[in-house]
């Protein structure tokens, strides 16, 4: 039997990379799926690829006020929600001296503030039982240069994984996290680097992965499926490290 048969799932940042791969997997496992994104081009492409049964919601994950609208659209289409994958996020990598307040605020708004207020907005429609999976990062655990703000946002969202799991478990809502290492997704192309510099960064990062390669979005999607399904009913406030051994160095 499909592992998510008749489950209603929302995936933020579901138009590319890990989010899109997870949407594909959830659909194959019997779920009804909604995705969010803010780029009209990638929203349209995801709609074409995933099919007309997928609910596609334009939304900026960094804007707290938009999260109530997302919740209302999910309520209207699905009536309730069984699975939430908080995947939308940004990675801006800079030396500490190059950060300004607006960039700092943008990272925290997208990676922490928006997800927090989306959980809040969805509470009235989250089922009992329900599963919330948060996309964190190995960078919450390692001292990688130029990731001071990014790592701090992921440490914050991991803290929310633990505290919200304790707060919401009485409502039947399990909260867990996946922490990927470097994954082959469009995220790296958004760093604003030249192709040559991007290759240097990629080679440097890959050298820190004991497994010797970047991860594939499927590697993360499979773990999210496990946490979303009834196979993980005893997992509460847990973190799955999916980093090719990077965090063990």
Structure in a nutshell:
With 249 residues, the protein is an alpha/beta fold. It has helices at residues 17-28, 40-50, 67-78, 101-122, 148-168, 195-206, 217-228, and strands at residues 8-11, 32-37, 55-58, 81-86, 126-135, 173-180, 239-242.
Structure description:
- This protein has helices at 17-28, 40-50, 67-78, 101-122, 148-168, 195-206, 217-228, and strands at 8-11, 32-37, 55-58, 81-86, 126-135, 173-180, 239-242.
- β4 (81-86), α4 (101-122) and β5 form a beta-alpha-beta unit.
- 41% of the residues lie in helices and 17% in strands.
- The chain has one domain (8-187, 215-241): NAD(P)-binding Rossmann-like Domain (Rossmann fold), CATH 3.40.50.720.
- The protein is α/β, with parallel strands linked by helices and 249 residues long.
- The chain is globular and about 45 Å long.
- It starts with 7 loop residues before the first strand and ends in a 7-residue tail after the last strand.
- The model has no long low-confidence stretch (mean pLDDT 93).
- α1 crosses α7 (217-228).
- Strands 3-2-1-4-5-6-7 form a seven-stranded parallel β-sheet, sandwiched between helices.
- The protein is built from seven helices and seven strands.
Task: Give me some keywords for this one.
249 residues, 7 helices, 7-stranded parallel β-sheet, Rossmann fold, alpha/beta
Percent strand equals 15-25%
Structural class, from secondary structure content? alpha/beta
Helix segment tally: 7
Beta strand count: 7
Question: Low-confidence parts, pLDDT < 50 over ≥5 residues?
Answer: none
Q: Could you tell me how far the N terminus lies from the C terminus, measured between alpha carbons in angstroms?
A: 39 Å
Q: What is the string of SSEs from the N terminus onward?
A: EHEHEHEHEHEHHE
CATH architecture descriptor name: 3-Layer(aba) Sandwich
Q: Any idea how many domains?
A: 1
């Amino acid at each position: 039997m499909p592992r998510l048969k008749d489950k209603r799932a929302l995936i933020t940042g579901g138009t590319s990379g890990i989010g899109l791969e997870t949407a594909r997997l959830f659909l194959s496992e019997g779920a009804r799926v909604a995705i969010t994104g803010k780029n009209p081009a990638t929203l349209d492409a995801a709609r074409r690829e995933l099919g007309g049964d997928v609910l596609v919601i334009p939304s900026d994950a960094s804007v707290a006020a938009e999260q109530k609208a997302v919740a209302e659209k999910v309520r209207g289409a699905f009536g309730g929600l069984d699975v939430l994958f908080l995947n939308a996020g940004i990675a801006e990598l800079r030396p500490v001296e190059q950060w300004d307040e607006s960039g700092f605020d943008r990272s925290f708004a997208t990676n922490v503030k928006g997800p927090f207020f989306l959980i809040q907005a969805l509470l009235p429609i989250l089922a009992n039982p329900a599963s919330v999976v948060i996309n964190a990062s190995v960078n919450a655990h390692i001292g990688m240069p130029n990731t001071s703000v990014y790592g701090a946002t992921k440490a914050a969202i991991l803290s929310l994984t633990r505290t919200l799991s304790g707060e919401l478990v009485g409502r039947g809502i399990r909260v867990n996290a996946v922490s990927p290492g470097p994954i082959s997704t469009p995220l790296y192309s958004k760093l604003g680097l030249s192709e040559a510099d991007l290759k240097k960064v990629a080679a440097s990062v890959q050298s820190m992965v004991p497994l010797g390669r970047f991860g594939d979005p499927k590697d993360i999607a499979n773990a999210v499926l496990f946490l979303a399904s009834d196979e993980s009913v005893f997992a509460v406030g847990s973190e799955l490290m999916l980093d090719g051994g990077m965090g063990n160095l």
